[in-house]
């Protein structure tokens, strides 16, 4: 699997930097439909990520203590971290 995984969810583009993720799982706690931990305890997108609200998605990405999740809006402006 690639070290970075990006997905467009609604108006946002979310990037998971798997090289930074240490598996705390705060993103999963905040938005279990958007994120899950794989067998290596590293964040990946959940099967229902596309249905998560923008507010919940931002909160989950902001919860990452190592900034492994970044979010950009449609204009490319980085919102998180």
Report on the structure:
With 81 residues, the protein is of the alpha+beta class. It has one domain: Alpha-Beta Plaits (2-Layer Sandwich), CATH 3.30.70. 17% of the residues lie in helices and 31% in strands. It is built from 2 helices and 6 strands; from the N terminus they run E-E-H-E-E-H-E-E. The strands form 2 sheets. It has a 4-stranded antiparallel sheet, covered by helices on one side. A two-stranded antiparallel sheet has the order 3-4. A hairpin with a 5-residue loop joins strand 5 and strand 6 (78-80). It is globular, with a radius of gyration of 11 Å. The model has no long low-confidence stretch (mean pLDDT 96).
Question: How large is the count of helical segments?
Answer: 2
Distance between the termini: 23 Å
Strands ordered across the widest β-sheet: 1-2-5-6
Quick check: average pLDDT?
A: 96
Count of individual domains: 1
The CATH architecture comes to: 2-Layer Sandwich
Work out the helicity level: 10-25%
Question: Helix/strand/pairing class, anyone?
Answer: alpha+beta
Please describe the biggest sheet, giving its number of strands, its sense, and whether it closes into a barrel. Answer: 4 strands, antiparallel
Helix and strand sequence = EEHEEHEE
Principal-axes geometry comes out as globular
- How big a fraction of the residues is strand? 25-35%
């Amino acid at each position: 699997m690639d070290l970075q995984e990006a997905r467009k969810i609604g108006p946002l583009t979310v990037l998971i930097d798997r090289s930074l993720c240490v598996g705390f799982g705060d993103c999963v706690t905040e938005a279990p439909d958007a994120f899950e931990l794989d067998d290596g305890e590293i964040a990946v997108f959940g099967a229902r990520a596309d249905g998560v609200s923008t507010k919940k998605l931002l909160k989950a990405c902001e919860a990452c203590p190592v900034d492994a999740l970044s979010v950009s809006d449609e204009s490319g402006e980085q919102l998180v971290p």
